[in-house]
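so the lab meeting is tmrw and i was supposed to have these ready like two days ago... anyway. pasting both below. for each one the top line is the aa sequence and the line under it is the structure tokens. i havent really looked at them closely yet so no promises
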Amino acid sequence: MFVFASAFPVLFFLFLILRKDKQQEPPKLLLKCFIGGFIAAVIAIIIEFILGIFGNTLEGDFSKAFYTAFIVAAGTEELVKWFIVKRLVWTNPEFDQHYDGIIYAVFVSLGFALIENLMYVFNGGLHVALMRGVLAVPGHGFFAVIMGYFLSLAKFEKGSQRSRHMVFSLLMPIIFHGLYDFALMYMGNLGEKNPMLSLGLAILFSVVVIRLWVVGFKNIRKHLIKDGM
């Protein structure tokens, strides 16, 4: 039951992304990307453990939340996922349409999310699966949509525009992921110490989630149009 609860939102998001692709990608390449997400998760866990040791020396709720959200979580996870995506598909001849970058990035990111989901759900129970299915899995999915969007722009451009969009393919997911985690972590650190600030962070979190979904769907639509789909 825990495995199904962890896997279902991942598979459902992948289905929604794949069904929009009129020129289907090779199953072997998609599987390679998905398994690449497993590898990314293992690498990220090791790096995050090491970085977390340094985080324990920080003082203050803000500093701890900022470091954990932007450096330990968002920075590490998005960098590792970005590296895996680029390593697997950048020179592959199957990467021949703009929407392909989004598909490949999502498969890596949701392979990562599946491993993360299993860990959290086995530790926290089915109510954790529900919360993560609604928020964390789509979050990882749309971070990847943004990554893949800019990666595809870089793929089909040259010169300064390629370099600019390559940077954005890593930077923008880190910013969204960092803000998402920061709002949650800072609220958790505050507890009931500052209700007004906690309310502000809850509003920030809601804005980030809504904006993430809006930008994600907009980016999908843009690349589908570019590919004539």
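ok protien two:
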Amino acid sequence: MMNRIAILLVLAAAGCKIKNNASLVITKVVAGTAVTTGAGGGAACTFNPGDVETDFLGYNPTENTGTLGVVVQNAILPSTNVNPALRTDAETFLAHQAVIDYEIVGQGAVGGERIVPVDGAVPTGGTAPVIVPLLPAGAVPATVAPGSIIRTTFHIEGKLVDGSSVHTSEREYLWVVCASTGCAGNVCL
């Protein structure tokens, strides 16, 4: 019986685009941590899927792009169980874009839908962050009043190693607009 279910899942993934895939779930959103790299002292950001999720973050349109680590869990059954002779795992999720809608709470939709490039790979049976700039330049008007709340609703699209197009579950994240220097509180945004 398990083999039949696994075969059906593999066939579903192989020939079509699977929307709102219950096997690719956004479990949380984490802020980055700045780390110093190399002797030159350059800075980089790391996104740890084990970090605690924050409910919302500050956003200063002149200082950041709202970049976060979107933690995706890949629960797609490995095809190695279906065809042990080939022993290939074709279910690694390779993220390539996020589809994002914007709303200023109390005012309605703003800026329309945006598609932004992302980076990340989530192995079969694993969890990993996908780096997503949720608020790229021009996504919302720079004139949004401080104290306003921006709701971003998004999902991540990509392919499995076998070439199937899939995307994650949908997720919302809130931002509080601020105007003073450093108000976002995180250099990795």
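from a quick look at the 2nd one: The mean pLDDT is 82. The chain is about 5% helix and 45% strand. will dig more after coffe
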